[in-house]
Amino acid sequence: MAIKSYKPVTHTLRFRTTSTFEEITKTVPEKSLLEPLRKTGGRTNNGRTTSRYIGGGHRQRYRLIDFRRDKREIPAKVAAIEYDPNRTCRIALLYYVDGEKRYILAPEGLAAGQTVMAGENAEIAVGNAVPLAKLPLGTFVHNVELKAGRGGQLARAAGTMVQVMAREGDFAHLRLPSGEIRLVRSENYATIGQIGNIDHENISIGKAGRTRWLGRRPRVRGVAKNPIDHPMGGGEGKSSGGRHPCSPWGQLAKGLKTRKKKKLSSKYILRRRK
């Protein structure tokens, strides 16, 4: 999963880097696991913009990912490692012995031809999904459930992982990628290993057009706007705003804690993120 740079025959190629895609073994996705994906442009069904700077982008189809890993005690063979345009990591196509096909997130070290399984009796190996209670302390996992049966919600992006730190009663102590230590019930499932495509964070976009391919529109700084459009706008020359950084609606952008003080899940957080 190396990074490839280009000979600078144009200005943008001088800074552009991409993945080598050397781990990809199949370029045509499994048709039975595809769904159409409509672009929203950041707008609701009423046409109101709720997420700014979204629009355009290349046409994509959604790959149905098995986050639950609920086919228990049934071995599956890794048929291929594929590219997924909807996420930063790679996905693995599984062929189960009963004939069913499913996609899972591809961890580092998983290759075509290997066998994976989910269940309490699965061995401690990369790609296998087991309850947190069965894992040795110090194990790195991903796709961790917050509620049993709901499916993995923690550590699903490229290069992320969660470490099992300790167990106490019905809970396991997990250290998240942010540095937060959190309690999660030991009956919840997690997949062993670190998510692949670790070098994703080191890729340089290189040009504005490539950002547009990803569906991201230009983001204008608040201080470059007029006073009617942003609280930090206006002023003579290149003004810095004259106030603390904020959103167009006055919400402070640096240091303001927005988490609810009486949020129910706060009792499961042993140490806050860095």
Q: Keywords, please?
A:
Ribosomal protein L2, domain 3, mainly beta, 1 helix, 24% strand, four-stranded antiparallel β-sheet, seven-stranded antiparallel β-sheet, 274 residues, OB fold (Dihydrolipoamide Acetyltransferase, E2P), globular, 2 domains
Question: How are the SSEs ordered, and which strands pair?
Answer:
Elements: E1 3-5, E2 17-19, E3 34-36, E4 61-63, E5 76-82, E6 91-96, E7 101-105, E8 115-116, E9 129-131, E10 140-142, E11 144-145, E12 152-154, E13 162-168, E14 171-175, E15 181-185, E16 189-192, H1 208-213, E17 269-271
Antiparallel strand pairs: 1-2, 3-4, 5-6, 5-8, 6-7, 9-16, 10-13, 10-16, 11-12, 13-14, 14-15, 15-17
Describe this entry's structure for a reader:
By secondary structure, the chain is mostly beta strands. The protein has two domains: 3-201, Nucleic acid-binding proteins (OB fold (Dihydrolipoamide Acetyltransferase, E2P)); 227-266, Ribosomal protein L2, domain 3 (Irregular), CATH 4.10.950. Helix content is 2%, strand content 24%. The chain has one helix at 208-213; strands at residues 3-5, 17-19, 34-36, 61-63, 76-82, 91-96, 101-105, 115-116, 129-131, 140-142, 144-145, 152-154, 162-168, 171-175, 181-185, 189-192, 269-271. The strands form five sheets. The chain has a seven-stranded antiparallel beta sheet, with no helix packed on it. A four-stranded antiparallel beta sheet has the order 7-6-5-8, with no helix packed on it. The model has no long low-confidence stretch (mean pLDDT 96).
